[in-house]
Amino acid sequence: MVSVAIMGHGVVGSGVAEIITTHKQKLFASVGEEIYIKHILDLREFPDSPLADRFTKNFDDIINDIDVRVVVEVMGGVNPAYDFVKRCLLSGKSVVTSNKELVAAHGAELLKIASENNTNFLFEASVGGGIPIIRPINQCLVANNVSEIAGILNGTTNFILTKMINEGMNFDDALKLAQQLGYAERNPEADVEGHDACRKICILASLAYGKHIYPDAVHTEGITKITLDDVKYASIWGGVIKLIGKVKRLPDKKCDIVVAPMLIPSKSQLANIDDVFNGIMVRGDCTGDVVFYGKGAGKLPTASAVVADVIDCVKHLKNRKYLFWADSDNSSVIDYKESVTAMYIRAIADNTADAYNKAKSLFSDIHILENSEAKENEIAFVCEPMAYGEILNNIDALNNSGIKVESAIRIGDL
Ligand code: HSE
Q1: Which is nearest to 412 in space by CA: 189, 152, 202, 27?
Q2: Distance between CA atoms of residues 356 and 326, nearest Å
Q3: Ligand 1: which atom is nearest the Cα of residue 159?
Q4: N or C: which end of the chain has fewer CB within 10 A?
Q5: What digits encode the pLDDT tens for the residues 290-346?
Q6: What are 136-164's pLDDT values in tens digits?
Q7: Domains and CATH numbers, the chain
Q8: Which residues line ligand 1 (CB under 6 A)?
C-alpha cells in the first residue's frame, strides 16, 4: 500500500479523490499496490464526504507523516502552494500538481529541489487538463528537434470565440454565457487577457527547450478587443480567430514566444477545435506535425492526468523519473518587436482609396479584404510578414495620417 495526501478538495482535488476511490482495482492492476488516500488538506468542512475522516486543516499532518510518499497539490495559486510543495520535496516526498501558475513561476527551482532530493515533481495536468502533452514532449517526441509548439491552451476563451464565430454573439454576451455555464470565473481576467495561456506555453517551451521561460518575458494579448467585424473579416480571408500560445525556435536557438489572438487558416488542424476544447500542435523534425486534442479543463479530465502522475510517482519511488529544465534569465527570448509576422489590419479612413495607397506605401505588399457588408469608410487588409516593431511603426503612421486603426491581429502560419 502506498499512502498519498491531497492538498485541496476543490473541483480537481475532489476529482482526484473520486478517481482513486472508484478506479481502485484499475490502479491496483497498474502499480501492484493499493493507492491509499491518507490525508486531505482543506480549510473547509466536508462532513458528508465518504472520506470525511481523512480531512485535516493542518499541513503538518502531511509533512510529518513518513508514510505519505506522494503529495498531490491541487490548491491553485502560488501561495501557500509554493511553500508546501517545496517542503514536501525537501523532505523526500514526490509531488504531483495541476497548478500551472506554480509551475510557470517556480518550475525550475522545484525541479532542482526534486532532483537534489531524489524525488519526483510531476505536472501533466498543468497544461491541457486531460490531454497528454508533458509526457509526450518529454518522452515520446524526445528524439525530435521541436521547431515550434502552438496551441489553443485556454478553454474559456475558446468557448467565447466559438460563440462569436458560429453564433454571431458579441464578446460581452459570450463571456456572460461562459460565466453562467461555469467555464469563466467571476473575475475572468486570467483567461480573457491571456495570462492562463501564457503560463501554459511557458511550461511547454521550458520543457521543450530546457530553459525556464518566465511569463513576464512573454508578450501577451487577450481577446477582449476582438469584434464581430474582425470575425467576419477572418472568414473573408479564409479562416477563424483563435487565441494561440506559440513558441518558435529560431536558427540561433532563441525563442520567439507570444500569446495573442491570431487569424488561422480554415485548413489548419487547430481551426476546428471549438468550445472549451484545447488543441496543441508540436512540430518535430522527425514526426512532422503532431496534434493533441481533448478536454483542457474540468474535474475528471484534469484529475485523470493528476492520477496518472501519482501512478508514475509510485512506480518511481526509488528511481527518479527524468524531467528537468534549467533556470534562466529569459535571455533566450527575443524582443517581441523582433518577431516576424503577417498582420490583418482594419481601419476607418475619410477616403478609402487614399487610405489603401497609404497602406501600400508603408507595407511592402498588402492583400485587400473585400467585404460587401463593410462599414462606411472601412478598409481591411493583410500585410506580408515583417517585424512586429515595424508593423507598430506603420500603424502609428496610419493613425497620424488620419487613418484610424481599429484592429490589428497577427496571422498564424499554422
Ligand atoms: N481557466 C482554464 C481554461 C482552466 O479555461 O482553460 C484550465 O486551465
Answers
A1: 152
A2: 49
A3: 5
A4: N
A5: 999 999 999 999 999 999 999 999 999 977 778 999 999 999 999 999 999 999 999
A6: 999 999 999 999 999 999 999 999 999 99
A7: 2-130+299-315 (3.40.50.720), 134-295 (3.30.360.10), 340-411 (3.30.70.1710)
A8: 129, 154-156, 191, 196, 296-297
